[in-house]
Specification:
Layout (H helix, E strand, L loop, with lengths): L1 H10 L6 H7 L4 H13 L3 E5 L2 E6 L16 E7 L2 H10 L6 E8 L17 E7 L10 H18 L4 E3 L3 E4 L2 E13 L2 E11 L15 H5 L5 H17 L3 H10 L7 E5 L4 E9 L5 E4 L5 E4 L3 E4 L7
Parallel strand pairs: 3-4
Antiparallel strand pairs: 1-2, 4-5, 5-9, 6-7, 7-8, 8-9, 10-11, 10-14, 11-12, 12-13
Helix pairs in contact: 2-3, 5-7, 5-8
Bound molecules: biotin.
Biotin binds next to helix 4, strand 5, strand 8 and strand 9.
């Protein structure tokens, strides 16, 4: 009801009478009034005049009813430890493919390789539960598709020159704009679920805590709508993974890459490898050209660009 009410109010920027709303939404005027009051309580500026209702402004909060096509598969929480935890619980309980958990802030946000992800108000923090029928070895195609689609969405909506950094970061220059985390469970090598957690610095200010981080608002000098960004990303991602073409995804990843062609250092808890990033394969593994033109396939790790050495 709330989403239908908002759709109707948004498509009629002038006043709409309670009578019209009750007719088109097939409900009583009292029910309409109750929903209007609830929306007002959630931060919607809906003016009630003798002639009817007018939506003057909406809060930029990703309430499930702002995503009518996926409302039943969306969970919004104001504060949570990590969206990864709730998404894992829901996935184990059998929630459908495409379920999304989104939070306003996280108190124990998780980053890759057991780091923390600072999640202040104004950012976008969400986890998508996917249930592709694939072997575990193909799972990384999904976060790679997500980084490509997120990068493309940010570029299109903001004009920012966002790039993908191996494996799944989004950078602007050297500063991190978004990060991704992938968790999965499988049974006898067939995936039960893949959860992709995404944190985007949108209207928050990550710089005080994270040296090499930036946000869309800091770059543009004005805030952008998180709801619109999330909606556009989810729609495009659903389309891409509906018929996932890993070759096309990796081709686009390469065209947006901030990593390929660079001299890099890959750090894992076990070892450090240096070389020139020359390619990624269909599963998102990084191909490094190390000493003596030896090619090495890197499956995971932290990737740091090694700046060009000035001529000796
Ligand atoms: C990284 O770059 O290290 C990955 C960061 C992933 C952060 C997102 S925010 C939403 C989801 N919930 C979490 O706790 N982490 C991911």
């Amino acid at each position: 009801m709330k989403s239908a009410l908002l759709t109707w109010l948004r498509s009629h920027p002038d006043v709409v009478s309670g009578e019209t709303l009750s007719t088109v939404l097939h409900t009583s005027r009292v029910t309409i009034w109750n929903h209007i009051q609830k929306l007002q309580g959630l931060g919607y500026d809906i003016q009630a005049t003798p002639k009817g209702y007018r939506l003057a402004a909406s809060p930029d909060i990703p309430y499930p009813f702002e995503f009518p096509e996926r409302e039943g598969r969306m969970y919004y929480v104001e504060t949570i430890g990590s969206t990864m935890d709730l998404a894992k619980t829901l996935a184990r309980e059998g929630c459908p493919h495409g379920t999304v958990v989104v939070a306003e802030r996280q108190t124990r946000g998780k980053g890759r390789l057991r780091r923390t992800w600072i999640s202040d108000v104004g950012g976008l923090y969400f986890t998508i539960v996917l249930r592709p029928e694939i072997p575990a070895s193909h799972v990384m195609r999904y976060p790679f598709a997500a980084s490509v689609v997120l990068c493309r969405t940010i570029r299109r909506m903001t004009g920012i020159d966002a790039r993908v950094k191996w494996p799944n970061d989004i950078l602007v220059g050297q500063a991190k704009l978004a990060g991704m985390l992938c968790e999965m469970e499988a049974e006898t090598d067939l995936v039960s679920f893949v959860n992709i957690g995404i944190g985007v610095n949108v209207n928050n200010d990550p710089e005080p805590a994270e040296q090499k981080a930036c946000s869309i608002r800091n770059i543009l000098g004005h805030p952008v709508e998180r709801v619109a960004l999330l909606r556009e990303f989810l729609d495009a991602y659903e389309t891409v993974i509906g018929a996932l073409d890993p070759v096309a995804v990796m081709r686009e990843w390469k065209s947006l890459s901030a990593t390929l062609g660079k001299q890099v250092r890959i750090v894992t808890p076990e070892r450090v490898t240096e070389g020139r990033a020359v390619d990624i394969d269909a599963n998102g593994n990084l191909i490094l050209e190390t000493q003596n033109r030896h090619l090495e396939t890197i499956l995971y790790g932290d990737c740091f660009e090694i700046p060009n050495q000035p001529n000796a």
